[in-house]
Known about the structure:
By secondary structure, the protein is of the alpha/beta class. The chain contains nine helices and seven strands. The protein has helices at 18-29, 43-51, 66-80, 106-134, 146-149, 155-175, 193-196, 201-212, 223-233; strands at 9-13, 33-38, 56-60, 85-88, 137-142, 180-187, 244-247. The protein has a seven-stranded parallel β-sheet, with helices on both faces. Strand 2, helix 2 and strand 3 (56-60) form a beta-alpha-beta unit.
Amino acid sequence: MMGQLEGKVAVVTGGALGIGAAYCKRLAEEGAKVVIADLEDASSVVGVIEQAGGEAIFVETDVANEAANMNMAAKAVEAFGRLDILVANAGLYTHLRRGPSLEETVDEWDAVYNVNIKGVWLGAKACIPEMKKNGYGKIINIASTAAFQGTPGITRYAASKAAVVGITRSMAREYGDDGIRINAIAPGPIETETGKQYETEESIKRRLASGKKRALGRNGMPADVLGLCVFLSSPKSDFMSGQTVVVDGGGTMW
């Protein structure tokens, strides 16, 4: 059976671990050739995809660096001949120190800005010229419900994800005539093995309380966001652009 993304080439930033690795594997299952762009080594994810009969390469990439993003796009085209999909998943979250906004430092803000905002823009800046050549492309930016809920103790992160929504809307209007659809996924808390490695007593309490607030009574797992990522990457969503879709088990309702 043909996958929904057969013949497409997808770049996933931050694809070495956690939700990013799950996106890579799922897109490959649907037939996409996958470029995993990360500072962490993604050779194990490449191996899993290849063992399942898919195609993938790892390109070491610092998304906050413009030249690194240009190299990421060039390597995708060099390896697979085209570039159709960008999943801008790389972001700083797990290791961020939490505390009142007045105690956040300029350096902490700059670090989050560079990856979570500038990195999303630079990824699109590198990939859109290749998509324009084919008159078609899909960009899926990863936002967060933190942008909408007013998440205390992590203002710089919430602000960065609100900026991702703004980038999504502005660039969707700019590049629609080129056949490029740009949407965002806003997950609620997603439980990953990577994240659990860094848990504290306080964060475990926060996680358990968060799950109880949702209509479905639990936090998300990586598998919960994969279907939407495939949908937004596929022709099934070709008349959608500039949208941010919340996936948080009914915690945020519009």
